[in-house]
Amino acid sequence: MKSIGFFNNKGGVGKTTLLCNLAGSLAIQHNKNILVIDSDPQCNASAYLLEESQLENILINEEYNSIDSFYEPIRRGQGYSNNTPNIERSARFGLDLIVGNPKLSIREDLLASDWSETRNGEPRGFQTTYAFKQLLSRLNSYDYIFVDMGPSLGALNRSVLLSVDFFLMPLSVDIFSMMAVKNIIKSISSWKDSLNDAIERHYHAERHYFEIANERIQWKLNFAGYVMQQYRAKKKEGIRQPVGAFERIIEMQRAEIQEICNFFSVNQEAANLGEVPTLSSVVPLSQQAHAPIFALAARDGVVGAHYTRVAEAGDFFHSISENFLARMEND
What we know:
The chain is an alpha/beta fold. The protein has helices spanning 15-30, 44-49, 52-59, 72-75, 107-119, 123-129, 131-136, 155-163, 175-206, 244-264, 268-271, 283-289, 306-330; strands at 2-6, 34-38, 88-90, 95-98, 144-148, 166-172, 211-212, 215-216, 222-229, 235-236, 239-240, 272-276. The protein is globular and about 65 Å long.
Protein backbone atom coordinates (compact mmCIF):
# COMPACT_ATOMS: atom_id res chain seq x y z
CA MET A 1 0.00 0.00 0.00
CA LYS A 2 1.16 3.50 -0.84
CA SER A 3 -0.47 6.64 0.53
CA ILE A 4 -0.58 9.92 -1.37
CA GLY A 5 -1.75 13.30 -0.11
CA PHE A 6 -3.15 15.70 -2.73
CA PHE A 7 -1.99 19.11 -1.63
CA ASN A 8 -1.37 22.67 -2.67
CA ASN A 9 -1.24 25.76 -0.48
CA LYS A 10 -3.79 27.39 -2.78
CA GLY A 11 -7.42 26.58 -3.43
CA GLY A 12 -9.12 26.54 -6.81
CA VAL A 13 -6.48 24.44 -8.57
CA GLY A 14 -8.79 21.49 -9.32
CA LYS A 15 -7.38 19.33 -6.52
CA THR A 16 -10.51 17.38 -5.63
CA THR A 17 -11.54 16.97 -9.27
CA LEU A 18 -8.09 15.60 -10.06
CA LEU A 19 -8.02 13.28 -7.03
CA CYS A 20 -11.45 11.76 -7.65
CA ASN A 21 -11.02 11.28 -11.39
CA LEU A 22 -7.48 9.92 -11.10
CA ALA A 23 -8.68 7.54 -8.38
CA GLY A 24 -11.60 6.52 -10.61
CA SER A 25 -9.29 5.92 -13.56
CA LEU A 26 -6.98 3.72 -11.47
CA ALA A 27 -9.94 1.75 -10.10
CA ILE A 28 -11.88 1.35 -13.36
CA GLN A 29 -9.15 1.26 -16.00
CA HIS A 30 -6.40 -0.47 -14.01
CA ASN A 31 -8.41 -2.54 -11.52
CA LYS A 32 -6.58 -1.01 -8.55
CA ASN A 33 -8.03 -1.22 -5.04
CA ILE A 34 -8.37 2.44 -4.05
CA LEU A 35 -9.36 4.16 -0.80
CA VAL A 36 -9.95 7.90 -0.58
CA ILE A 37 -9.68 9.57 2.82
CA ASP A 38 -11.32 12.98 3.00
CA SER A 39 -9.26 14.93 5.54
CA ASP A 40 -10.49 18.31 4.29
CA PRO A 41 -13.14 19.67 6.70
CA GLN A 42 -14.93 21.15 3.66
CA CYS A 43 -15.70 17.55 2.61
CA ASN A 44 -15.67 18.26 -1.14
CA ALA A 45 -14.38 14.79 -2.04
CA SER A 46 -17.12 13.16 0.05
CA ALA A 47 -19.78 15.27 -1.67
CA TYR A 48 -18.34 14.34 -5.08
CA LEU A 49 -18.09 10.59 -4.46
CA LEU A 50 -21.35 9.91 -2.57
CA GLU A 51 -25.02 10.58 -3.22
CA GLU A 52 -26.43 13.52 -1.23
CA SER A 53 -28.85 11.40 0.81
CA GLN A 54 -26.12 8.92 1.77
CA LEU A 55 -23.75 11.69 2.82
CA GLU A 56 -26.45 13.50 4.78
CA ASN A 57 -27.36 10.36 6.73
CA ILE A 58 -23.71 9.85 7.62
CA LEU A 59 -23.08 13.40 8.80
CA ILE A 60 -26.17 13.60 11.03
CA ASN A 61 -25.54 10.19 12.63
CA GLU A 62 -23.96 10.86 16.03
CA GLU A 63 -23.03 7.17 16.41
CA TYR A 64 -21.12 7.02 13.14
CA ASN A 65 -17.42 6.12 13.41
CA SER A 66 -16.09 9.19 11.65
CA ILE A 67 -12.58 10.41 10.95
CA ASP A 68 -13.22 13.12 13.54
CA SER A 69 -14.28 10.67 16.28
CA PHE A 70 -11.03 8.76 15.68
CA TYR A 71 -9.20 11.67 17.39
CA GLU A 72 -11.42 11.85 20.48
CA PRO A 73 -9.63 9.20 22.62
CA ILE A 74 -6.32 10.87 21.77
CA ARG A 75 -7.65 14.22 23.02
CA ARG A 76 -8.65 12.53 26.28
CA GLY A 77 -5.21 10.97 26.72
CA GLN A 78 -6.59 7.45 26.23
CA GLY A 79 -4.42 6.45 23.29
CA TYR A 80 -5.58 5.43 19.84
CA SER A 81 -9.19 4.53 19.19
CA ASN A 82 -10.15 0.88 18.91
CA ASN A 83 -12.61 1.87 16.19
CA THR A 84 -11.44 2.51 12.64
CA PRO A 85 -13.60 5.07 10.77
CA ASN A 86 -16.38 3.52 8.70
CA ILE A 87 -15.64 2.87 5.05
CA GLU A 88 -18.23 3.66 2.38
CA ARG A 89 -18.42 2.60 -1.27
CA SER A 90 -18.61 4.98 -4.23
CA ALA A 91 -20.31 2.80 -6.82
CA ARG A 92 -19.65 4.75 -10.01
CA PHE A 93 -16.06 5.61 -9.12
CA GLY A 94 -15.42 2.00 -8.09
CA LEU A 95 -13.57 2.87 -4.89
CA ASP A 96 -13.89 3.12 -1.11
CA LEU A 97 -14.11 6.29 0.96
CA ILE A 98 -13.58 7.42 4.53
CA VAL A 99 -15.97 10.35 4.68
CA GLY A 100 -14.82 13.79 5.77
CA ASN A 101 -16.28 15.69 8.69
CA PRO A 102 -16.51 19.48 9.23
CA LYS A 103 -15.73 18.91 12.92
CA LEU A 104 -12.24 17.81 11.94
CA SER A 105 -11.22 21.47 11.76
CA ILE A 106 -11.62 21.65 15.55
CA ARG A 107 -8.84 19.05 15.90
CA GLU A 108 -6.44 21.64 14.52
CA ASP A 109 -5.98 23.05 18.04
CA LEU A 110 -5.13 19.62 19.48
CA LEU A 111 -2.60 18.92 16.73
CA ALA A 112 -1.08 22.39 16.99
CA SER A 113 -0.65 22.33 20.77
CA ASP A 114 0.80 18.82 20.80
CA TRP A 115 3.27 19.69 18.04
CA SER A 116 5.27 21.63 20.62
CA GLU A 117 5.46 18.42 22.68
CA THR A 118 6.53 16.53 19.57
CA ARG A 119 9.36 19.01 19.03
CA ASN A 120 10.44 18.43 22.62
CA GLY A 121 10.62 14.69 21.93
CA GLU A 122 7.72 13.83 24.25
CA PRO A 123 5.70 10.62 23.58
CA ARG A 124 2.34 12.41 23.88
CA GLY A 125 3.32 14.77 21.08
CA PHE A 126 4.40 11.96 18.78
CA GLN A 127 1.23 10.03 19.51
CA THR A 128 -0.98 12.96 18.49
CA THR A 129 1.07 14.09 15.50
CA TYR A 130 1.17 10.57 14.07
CA ALA A 131 -2.46 9.61 14.70
CA PHE A 132 -3.09 9.76 10.97
CA LYS A 133 -0.22 7.37 10.34
CA GLN A 134 -1.72 5.00 12.89
CA LEU A 135 -4.97 5.12 10.92
CA LEU A 136 -3.14 4.39 7.66
CA SER A 137 -1.41 1.38 9.25
CA ARG A 138 -4.83 -0.28 9.65
CA LEU A 139 -5.64 -0.02 5.93
CA ASN A 140 -3.01 -2.17 4.26
CA SER A 141 -5.43 -4.06 2.01
CA TYR A 142 -5.47 -1.21 -0.54
CA ASP A 143 -3.12 -0.63 -3.45
CA TYR A 144 -3.30 3.14 -3.03
CA ILE A 145 -4.79 5.49 -0.47
CA PHE A 146 -5.48 9.02 -1.71
CA VAL A 147 -5.92 11.74 0.91
CA ASP A 148 -7.83 14.89 0.02
CA MET A 149 -6.42 17.85 1.93
CA GLY A 150 -7.40 21.47 2.44
CA PRO A 151 -5.09 24.23 1.20
CA SER A 152 -3.65 25.33 4.55
CA LEU A 153 -0.18 24.73 5.95
CA GLY A 154 -1.65 24.21 9.42
CA ALA A 155 -1.29 21.44 11.98
CA LEU A 156 -3.84 19.06 10.45
CA ASN A 157 -2.18 19.02 7.04
CA ARG A 158 1.26 18.82 8.64
CA SER A 159 0.12 15.68 10.47
CA VAL A 160 -1.15 14.18 7.20
CA LEU A 161 2.02 15.02 5.26
CA LEU A 162 4.23 13.56 7.98
CA SER A 163 2.18 10.35 7.77
CA VAL A 164 1.74 9.67 4.04
CA ASP A 165 4.36 8.25 1.67
CA PHE A 166 3.99 10.91 -1.05
CA PHE A 167 2.25 14.14 -1.89
CA LEU A 168 0.95 15.07 -5.33
CA MET A 169 0.58 18.73 -6.23
CA PRO A 170 -2.04 20.10 -8.64
CA LEU A 171 -1.08 23.46 -10.11
CA SER A 172 -2.80 26.25 -11.98
CA VAL A 173 -1.10 28.89 -14.10
CA ASP A 174 -1.33 31.94 -11.86
CA ILE A 175 1.01 33.95 -9.66
CA PHE A 176 -0.70 32.82 -6.44
CA SER A 177 -0.20 29.16 -7.27
CA MET A 178 3.47 29.88 -7.86
CA MET A 179 3.77 31.64 -4.49
CA ALA A 180 2.07 28.66 -2.85
CA VAL A 181 4.85 26.40 -4.14
CA LYS A 182 7.39 28.60 -2.33
CA ASN A 183 5.39 28.31 0.90
CA ILE A 184 5.29 24.52 0.61
CA ILE A 185 9.05 24.27 0.13
CA LYS A 186 9.72 26.50 3.13
CA SER A 187 7.27 24.67 5.41
CA ILE A 188 8.31 21.15 4.47
CA SER A 189 11.97 22.00 4.97
CA SER A 190 11.19 23.41 8.43
CA TRP A 191 9.06 20.37 9.40
CA LYS A 192 11.80 17.98 8.34
CA ASP A 193 14.41 19.75 10.47
CA SER A 194 12.05 19.93 13.48
CA LEU A 195 11.08 16.28 13.19
CA ASN A 196 14.65 15.03 12.94
CA ASP A 197 15.58 17.04 16.04
CA ALA A 198 12.50 15.72 17.87
CA ILE A 199 13.34 12.11 17.03
CA GLU A 200 16.79 12.50 18.54
CA ARG A 201 15.39 14.23 21.64
CA HIS A 202 12.94 11.37 22.15
CA TYR A 203 15.66 8.75 21.72
CA HIS A 204 17.97 10.40 24.23
CA ALA A 205 15.15 10.71 26.78
CA GLU A 206 13.48 7.30 26.26
CA ARG A 207 16.41 5.23 24.91
CA HIS A 208 14.27 3.97 22.05
CA TYR A 209 12.65 5.38 18.93
CA PHE A 210 8.93 6.09 18.73
CA GLU A 211 7.08 3.51 16.64
CA ILE A 212 3.71 3.21 14.93
CA ALA A 213 2.59 -0.34 14.06
CA ASN A 214 6.15 -1.60 14.71
CA GLU A 215 7.59 0.91 12.27
CA ARG A 216 10.09 3.48 13.48
CA ILE A 217 8.98 7.08 13.01
CA GLN A 218 11.22 8.99 10.65
CA TRP A 219 11.03 11.54 7.85
CA LYS A 220 9.77 9.67 4.79
CA LEU A 221 7.66 12.07 2.72
CA ASN A 222 8.42 11.99 -1.01
CA PHE A 223 7.16 13.96 -4.00
CA ALA A 224 4.89 11.98 -6.34
CA GLY A 225 4.77 14.76 -8.90
CA TYR A 226 2.52 17.49 -10.20
CA VAL A 227 -0.37 17.97 -12.61
CA MET A 228 -0.83 21.27 -14.40
CA GLN A 229 -4.26 22.71 -15.06
CA GLN A 230 -4.24 24.14 -18.58
CA TYR A 231 -4.99 27.81 -19.01
CA ARG A 232 -7.52 29.05 -21.54
CA ALA A 233 -5.86 30.09 -24.76
CA LYS A 234 -6.97 31.03 -28.23
CA LYS A 235 -6.45 28.50 -30.97
CA LYS A 236 -5.30 29.06 -34.51
CA GLU A 237 -5.98 26.22 -36.93
CA GLY A 238 -6.57 23.97 -33.92
CA ILE A 239 -3.25 24.79 -32.22
CA ARG A 240 -3.16 26.52 -28.83
CA GLN A 241 -1.37 29.83 -29.08
CA PRO A 242 1.03 30.81 -26.29
CA VAL A 243 0.01 33.71 -24.06
CA GLY A 244 2.94 35.78 -22.86
CA ALA A 245 1.79 36.39 -19.27
CA PHE A 246 0.93 32.73 -18.70
CA GLU A 247 4.14 31.50 -20.30
CA ARG A 248 6.20 33.70 -17.97
CA ILE A 249 4.42 32.28 -14.92
CA ILE A 250 4.96 28.74 -16.22
CA GLU A 251 8.69 29.42 -16.55
CA MET A 252 8.86 30.72 -12.98
CA GLN A 253 6.84 27.74 -11.75
CA ARG A 254 9.27 25.36 -13.43
CA ALA A 255 12.06 26.86 -11.33
CA GLU A 256 10.02 26.37 -8.14
CA ILE A 257 9.11 22.81 -9.12
CA GLN A 258 12.76 22.10 -9.81
CA GLU A 259 13.52 23.24 -6.26
CA ILE A 260 10.95 20.79 -4.86
CA CYS A 261 12.36 18.02 -7.05
CA ASN A 262 15.86 18.80 -5.84
CA PHE A 263 14.71 18.73 -2.21
CA PHE A 264 13.22 15.25 -2.69
CA SER A 265 15.88 14.05 -5.17
CA VAL A 266 13.24 13.48 -7.85
CA ASN A 267 13.75 13.87 -11.60
CA GLN A 268 11.57 16.75 -12.80
CA GLU A 269 10.62 15.00 -16.02
CA ALA A 270 9.35 11.98 -14.06
CA ALA A 271 7.49 14.32 -11.70
CA ASN A 272 5.47 15.83 -14.55
CA LEU A 273 2.40 13.60 -14.53
CA GLY A 274 0.48 15.51 -17.17
CA GLU A 275 -2.05 18.24 -17.80
CA VAL A 276 -5.76 18.61 -17.20
CA PRO A 277 -7.75 20.72 -19.67
CA THR A 278 -10.41 23.21 -18.69
CA LEU A 279 -13.47 21.02 -18.15
CA SER A 280 -15.84 23.55 -16.64
CA SER A 281 -18.78 22.49 -18.80
CA VAL A 282 -18.78 18.87 -17.62
CA VAL A 283 -17.42 19.09 -14.06
CA PRO A 284 -20.86 20.12 -12.67
CA LEU A 285 -22.46 17.16 -14.47
CA SER A 286 -19.85 14.88 -12.96
CA GLN A 287 -20.48 16.25 -9.49
CA GLN A 288 -24.25 15.88 -9.81
CA ALA A 289 -23.94 12.32 -11.12
CA HIS A 290 -21.27 11.38 -8.53
CA ALA A 291 -19.39 9.79 -11.41
CA PRO A 292 -16.01 10.28 -13.10
CA ILE A 293 -16.04 12.81 -15.90
CA PHE A 294 -14.83 10.16 -18.37
CA ALA A 295 -17.76 7.87 -17.45
CA LEU A 296 -20.55 10.41 -18.02
CA ALA A 297 -23.35 9.41 -20.39
CA ALA A 298 -26.69 10.65 -21.71
CA ARG A 299 -28.45 9.66 -18.47
CA ASP A 300 -26.18 12.16 -16.68
CA GLY A 301 -27.21 15.05 -18.91
CA VAL A 302 -24.45 14.77 -21.51
CA VAL A 303 -25.54 16.26 -24.83
CA GLY A 304 -23.92 17.58 -28.00
CA ALA A 305 -20.44 19.03 -27.48
CA HIS A 306 -20.31 17.53 -23.97
CA TYR A 307 -19.41 14.17 -25.52
CA THR A 308 -16.22 15.64 -26.91
CA ARG A 309 -15.27 17.00 -23.50
CA VAL A 310 -16.03 13.66 -21.84
CA ALA A 311 -13.84 11.80 -24.31
CA GLU A 312 -11.11 14.42 -23.94
CA ALA A 313 -11.26 14.07 -20.15
CA GLY A 314 -10.82 10.32 -20.49
CA ASP A 315 -7.69 10.78 -22.60
CA PHE A 316 -6.17 13.18 -20.08
CA PHE A 317 -7.06 11.35 -16.85
CA HIS A 318 -6.11 7.91 -18.17
CA SER A 319 -2.78 9.31 -19.36
CA ILE A 320 -2.15 10.81 -15.92
CA SER A 321 -3.04 7.51 -14.24
CA GLU A 322 -0.53 5.67 -16.45
CA ASN A 323 2.16 8.23 -15.64
CA PHE A 324 1.27 7.98 -11.96
CA LEU A 325 1.61 4.19 -11.95
CA ALA A 326 4.96 4.41 -13.73
CA ARG A 327 6.13 6.93 -11.12
CA MET A 328 5.03 4.70 -8.24
CA GLU A 329 6.55 1.57 -9.73
CA ASN A 330 9.89 3.28 -10.33
CA ASP A 331 10.16 4.78 -6.86
